[in-house]
Amino acid sequence: MVKVGLIGAGTVGSGVIDIYLKNKDLIKEKLGTDIKLSIVCDRNLKKIEYLKNYKIDITDNFKDVINKDVDIVVELIGGITVAKEVIISALEKRKHVVTANKYLLAEFGEEIFSLAREKNAYVGFEASVGGGIPIIKTLRQGLIANNILNIEGILNGTVNFILTKMEENKTFEEALKIAQELGYAEKEPDFDINGIDSAHKIIILTALAYGKWVKMEDILVSGIRDILPLDIQIAEELGYKIKLIAESRIEDGKLGVRVCPTMIPKNNILSSVSDAYNAILVEGDFVGPTLYYGLGAGKNPTASAVWSDICYIAQKLSSGAGKLCEFNNFKNNIPIKHKYDFESEFYIRILAEDKVGVLYKISKVFAEYDISIKMVFQKDIKMEENSVPILIFTHKANYQNIIQAAQEISNFDFVKRKVFICPVE
């Protein structure tokens, strides 16, 4: 029998308990191994008191779980302080760990996996990226024989839901409110809408694909707060969709990782991903392009992913496997590209006063930074502070030059809002 201790009975943790109580016999039948949920820890003991009826111990002290005779510790409390202490303590005692904590892994993954190797312990984290989409196992095992050429995906369901609603001519604020009312967005949604959540996830996928832990400060991270319905409309008219794309790829012998709103053509399969769904494209040198799609968050999909890790570890333990630690030693010395060092075509939206000489001054700045303009639209509509939108598409340019030009343009007194920049695929 494999014994499991659960720390955190919140949204995902309660889902893990539900699966155990409903499907433990099914799991035993499929796995050929008996798994026992021995103890559950939560700050609110009243919430989990009912578990005593199922002969499951309860506690409000996570150390009781660490010190109990369990084989697997499941950490589902979130954050990076107590959660880190939980995981480190469990590994020190050579217990295997399962977590959904993308924030913690993105910040301290290198330290955690180093300790796991030292203690011959396994860290399962399928639930950290993509909810119920088995993308972690795919990169760990399914595509192990491939050099990964690139990863490109929609990794945040909240953001994708908001952008879908903006396609229905909702403002960002209106779309966010709907997402919050439906439970897709948190009351404090900054991690989602500012791209931070997607950045944590692409850091984890990058580590698996390329054996390199990238730090947050090395990644271009841009959110969706500045997108206007006008931008969505222009993209639609020209055969594009705006999506928050997280990508990781080898470029000129260096690793480039970024998260930003991107105009993608409608013939790109990611453009059809709507509402709260996630999709991840992974291309390998032998397998070619592959796609993984599904609900990227939520109680049940994420709890299902947690159980996939529990069952994998239990199966290995019951078969007498002597070594369970991660085969990827995350020691790739590939250099990381500067986050502004990439080339693309760009869409640039400027809200400016409608007067003579504005377009001339803007064009002059672009020329100074070696940016070639592909086409310009000036919509005859009045916006904030009686400004009009100037919409510019560039030929391929260096992002560093684009942001420097945008900063200079933003300083003109006739510009009424921060210049919006969006790469175009």
Report what the structure shows.
The protein has 425 residues and is α/β, with parallel strands linked by helices. It has 3 domains: 2-131 and 299-318, Rossmann fold, CATH 3.40.50; 136-295, Dihydrodipicolinate Reductase, domain 2 (2-Layer Sandwich); 343-424, 2-Layer Sandwich (Alpha-Beta Plaits). 37% of the residues lie in helices and 25% in strands. It is built from 14 helices and 17 strands. It has helices at residues 11-31, 45-48, 62-67, 82-92, 102-118, 135-142, 157-166, 172-181, 190-193, 196-210, 229-237, 299-318, 358-368, 399-410; strands spanning 2-7, 35-41, 57-59, 72-75, 96-99, 123-124, 148-154, 220-221, 240-251, 254-265, 277-284, 288-295, 343-352, 373-378, 388-394, 397-398, 420-424. A 6-stranded parallel sheet has the order 3-2-1-4-5-6, with helices on both faces. The chain has a 6-stranded mixed sheet with strand order 8-10-9-7-11-12. A hairpin with a 2-residue loop joins β9 (240-251) and β10. It is elongated, with a radius of gyration of 24 Å. The termini are far apart. The model has no long low-confidence stretch (mean pLDDT 94).
